[in-house]
Amino acid sequence: EAQVTQNPRYLITVTGKKLTVTCSQNMNHEYMSWYRQDPGLGLRQIYYSMNVEVTDKGDVPEGYKVSRKEKRNFPLILESPSPNQTSLYFCASSSPARNTEAFFGQGTRLTVV
Amino acid sequence: EDQVTQSPEALRLQEGESSSLNCSYTVSGLRGLFWYRQDPGKGPEFLFTLYSAGEEKEKERLKATLTKKESFLHITAPKPEDSATYLCAPDGTSYGKLTFGQGTILTVHP
User: Fold this and answer.
1) Residue B97 has pLDDT above 80, yes or no
2) I want to staple B101 with a disulfide (CB 3.0 to 4.6 A). Which of A36, A57, A108, B4 is the partner?
């Protein structure tokens, strides 16, 4: 089954404690992205990757890092989380070569206290 | 910079009452426009891709249309299970960078 898998689904952490949210896709897609979703602000892109070792900033990259060492994985790293990073996060993947739509993961709800 | 505006922000319908949702966009080199449905706390679920002005696509009670400046999602005789947030996202020449509208929250009452 084609899917994008994020872990964890829920996470409560404290300010300043480094964390990583993992994302994995099994569709051999070139593109992967991270979004955050906040009430009234919609889905905003944090970072995206067009292929292995190629990443670029989206609209709200401050406070986040990403890496793309393998095609299937695209982890999101918060080096020093702050309360304003409390949000619902989604990972997505797509294949421009095959002109496919983006497939989304099930989401990670992060709370930073 | 790509811009997307969806209207209305929220729409309440009675079961069977047809209506339309609007997605207006300003995108360089539109390659396609996506419509998604999102249920609370879940990831967006793909509905349609439209590639050129004049194109229409249908799925059950939903029909999406596209012009050069906007897209419409028509809902015919909606049911309560159609209640969700509907998102549009035009795909331009900024490869990998997808800009979503803020969505229309649709509520269908029985």
Assistant:
1) no
2) B4
